[in-house]
From TrEMBL:
Location of 4-aspartylphosphate modifications: D52
Domain of life: Bacteria
Taxonomy of the source species: Bacteria, Bacillati, Actinomycetota, Actinomycetes, Streptosporangiales
Key words, A-Z: DNA-binding, Phosphoprotein, Transcription, Transcription regulation, Two-component regulatory system
Residue ranges of every copy of the Response regulatory domain listed in the record: 3-116
Gene3D superfamilies: 3.40.50.2300, 6.10.250.690, Winged helix-like DNA-binding domain superfamily/Winged helix DNA-binding domain
GO term, biological process aspect, one: regulation of DNA-templated transcription
GO-annotated cellular components: cytosol; protein-DNA complex
Organism: Streptosporangium album
Keyword set includes Zinc: no
MF term (GO), any: transcription cis-regulatory region binding
Name listed for the protein in its UniProt record: DNA-binding response OmpR family regulator
Domain OmpR/PhoB-type residues, every copy: 125-224
Feature: DNA-binding region: 125-224
Length: 226
C-alpha cells in the first residue's frame, strides 16, 4: 500500500480515480485546488503526488515547481497534451512521469508502482523493523521479540503506518486520512480506541509506554524502547 495525494479539480475524475486506486490497495487523499494540494503534500508527506495541470487557483506547472522547492516527493503529472515539447517541459520542471488524459485507474496504478520502484519512494512495500518489532506488509504479519502478534486488519494497518515512520510524530488526522481513508470528518476517538487495543497487544499502556508514545495535543509516534 502506498499513500497517494491526488490533486484534481474535476469532481467526477477525482472520485473515479480515488475509488479505483483504493480498490488497488492505495491510501488516497485528495485536493481540488493547488494551494490545498501543496498544504497536504507538506503536512501529510504522501509517497507520491498525482497532479493535474488544469487547476482553478494556480497553474499545475507552477505547483510542481513549488513542490520541487520544498520536497522530493515523486510527482506524476496528468495532462491533456501529448506533444514532445509538452513532455520535455514537464520533465524539466521536475515531474517523475506523466500520463495523458483520458486514462484509467489501472493505467495510473501501473505508473505509480513503476515510479515508486524507480525512486524508492514508497515506505510501505517492504518489511519494517523497529527494535524488537517487525512488520511485514506483504504477508501482513507482525512479530514482537520473535512472537507473532494477533492483530485485526485495521490494527495491522495502524501499526504498519506508524512503524514505517519511526520516530515521527503522526497526527490523528493523518492516521484517519491514510489508515481509515477518511480525509475529512471522522472522530479522534476511533484512533484512540485502536491505539489502546494495539498497546494492549504490544504489552504496554499509555501510562507505561514502550513503543507507542503519545505526544499531548499533537499525535503519536512509534519508536524503539530506550
Amino acid at each position: 500500500m502506498s499513500n497517494v495525494l491526488l490533486v484534481e479539480d474535476d469532481v467526477a475524475i477525482r472520485t473515479s480515480l480515488t475509488r479505483g486506486l483504493r480498490d488497488r490497495g492505495h491510501a488516497v487523499s485528495s485536493a481540488s485546488a493547488a494551494l490545498d494540494g501543496l498544504r497536504l503534500a507538506v503536512e501529510e508527506r504522501p509517497d507520491l503526488v498525482v497532479l493535474d495541470l488544469g487547476l482553478p487557483d494556480l497553474d499545475g506547472l507552477d505547483l510542481l515547481r513549488m513542490l520541487r522547492a520544498v520536497s522530493r516527493i515523486p510527482v506524476i503529472v496528468a495532462t491533456a497534451r501529448d506533444g514532445d515539447a509538452e513532455m520535455v517541459r514537464l520533465l524539466d520542471a521536475g515531474a517523475d512521469d506523466y500520463v495523458v488524459k483520458p486514462f484509467s485507474a489501472a493505467q495510473l496504478d501501473a505508473r505509480i508502482r513503476a515510479v515508486l520502484r524507480r525512486t524508492g519512494g514508497s515506505r510501505t512495500d517492504s518489511s519494517v523493523t523497529v527494535g524488537g518489532l517487525r512488520v511485514d506488509p506483504r504477508t501482513r504479519e507482525a512479530t514482537l521479540d520473535g512472537a507473532a502478534l494477533d492483530l485485526s486488519p485495521k490494527e495491522f494497518d495502524l501499526l504498519h503506518y506508524l512503524a514505517a515512520r519511526p520516530g515521527e510524530v503522526i497526527t490523528k488526522r493523518e492516521l484517519l486520512t491514510h489508515v481509515w481513508q477518511i480525509p475529512y470528518g471522522g472522530a479522534d476517538k476511533t484512533v484512540d480506541v485502536h491505539l489502546s487495543w494495539l498497546r494492549r497487544k504490544l504489552g504496554e499502556t499509555s501510562a507505561e509506554p514502550r513503543y507507542l508514545q503519545s505526544v499531548r495535543g499533537v499525535g503519536v509516534r512509534l519508536a524503539a524502547p530506550a
